[in-house]
Amino acid sequence: MLEIGTKAPDFSLSDQNGDIHTLSEYAGKKVILYFYPKDSTPGCTKQACGFTELYPQFVEKGAVVLGVSKDSVASHKRFEEKYNLGFTLLSDPGLKAIQAYDVWKEKKNYGKVSMGVVRTTYLIDENGVIVKAFGKVKAAENPAQMLKELS
Questions:
Q1: Which of 57, 59, 63, 107 is the most interior residue, by most CB within 10 Å?
Q2: In angstroms, rounded to a whole number, what is the distance separating the alpha carbons of residues 142 and 47?
Q3: Is the pLDDT assigned to residue 141 strictly greater than 80?
Q4: What is the average pLDDT across 103-112?
Q5: What are phi and psi of 137, to 5 degrees?
Q6: How many other C-beta atoms can be found within 10 angstroms of the C-beta atom of residue 36?
Q7: Which residues belong to the active site?
Q8: Backbone angles phi, psi at 48, to 5 degrees
Q9: Is the dihedral of CA 21, 49, 44, 148 positive or negative?
Q10: Stated pTM of the model
Q11: Higher pLDDT residue, 1 or 11?
């Protein structure tokens, strides 16, 4: 996980519609950048639906929510449509941002060891500096937790 107070690494990733987004284009806004393992899995769905439900409140506080996983643009589009998600999902199949933000880790699941995304959320300020970092977040609680962090 990256340290609080460090400049957030810029990225250039496609969203669920194939449009390119960079972190630098959000200068002047707070960014909630969250990394999650996989579209349409139970935890990831709870987290995404929670951010969608609270999204108007994030906007009121001048914040943008960006979700990142290694899933494809097409997978993100299906995820967005199936759950009527209201924010941007970024596709990182090459793991560029995932590795830059230090969330690609060894994971153990039922005794099996594999590499994967550890659910992590960063709050980045208007100047592109990481002001909060949460590792191994609880999917269902994370959206409300991040909204509180903006207060």
A1: 63
A2: 7
A3: yes
A4: 90
A5: -70, 155
A6: 26
A7: 44
A8: -65, -40
A9: positive
A10: 0.96
A11: 11
Interatomic CA distance for residues 88 and 62, integer angstroms: 15
Q: What is the pLDDT of residue 126?
A: 96
Q: How confident is the model at residue 151 (pLDDT cuts 50, 70, 90)?
A: confident
* Nearest CA-CA partner of 98 in 59, 56, 67, 126: 67
The answer to whether the beta carbons of residues 148 and 50 sit under 8 Å apart is no
How high is the pLDDT of residue 91? 98
Tally of CA atoms within 13 A in the half-sphere of 56 that contains its CB:
1
User: Is the separation of the CB atoms in 116 and 107 below 8 Å?
Assistant: yes
Tell me: the pLDDT tens digits for 24-59? 999 999 999 999 999 999 999 999 999 999 999 999
3-class SS shares of the chain: helix, strand, coil, % to 5: 30, 30, 35
Length of the chain measured in residues: 151
Q: Which helix (H) or strand (E) holds 64?
A: strand 63-69
Q: Are 86 and 55 in contact (CB under 8 A)?
A: yes
The residues near 6 (Cβ < 8 Å, ≥ 6 apart) are: 129, 130
Average confidence (pLDDT) over 81-108: 96
